[in-house]
Amino acid sequence: MGEFLSRLAELLHLKQSGAAKLAQMENGLRAARRNNEDRLQDLKAEIRELEARAVQKKQEFDAARGPAKQIVAGEIERVLRERNSLRERARIVEDSIDKIQLAISKIGEAKAADARGVRAEQFDDIAIELDEQLAQLKSDSAAARDLERVKYEAPEKEGAERQAEAADAEVKLSKDVMKELRELEAE
After folding, report:
1. Which of 81, 120, 146, 166 could cross-link 67 (Cys pair, CB 3.0–4.6 Å)?
2. Whole-model pTM over 0.85
3. Which of 52, 107, 39, 43 has its CA nearest to residue 80?
4. CB 22 within 8 A of CB 111
């Protein structure tokens, strides 16, 4: 009796068909894309805030003297490292959005292939490509989560050692840091 009811439900399209599964997957991917787009906007806003803070810290650096100058230089480097980390996370999220869009288009191909009644081999090729895209998305999501956990912390020096260093030498920012700050000030 159960087998008969299962077959009847399938004939009446009461069970989830392949097309319904594709539609459900497509809806899930569209939701994931929207979430990633929101996340990307948040990351870009954080990056802009850090860039503004770096420019502000540069002004503080220019005005600072003695040990305070060394402290501000460290803060600038920390802000720029954090910004660079966020940029990498944003790049991963952008890549994920692209891959999600590609997966959505593969689903569209699968739906069109199903509607045209293509051969099973062609449908399998599309399914394999879609599966590869989904596996890559999972990998990218794991990489982004790993980057979110990383926080830069400057190494601690003894107070007297830090003050002696600051007193002995003029504090300067590295060429790379200065280049990044000039680019930010120019924007």
Report:
1. 166
2. no
3. 52
4. yes
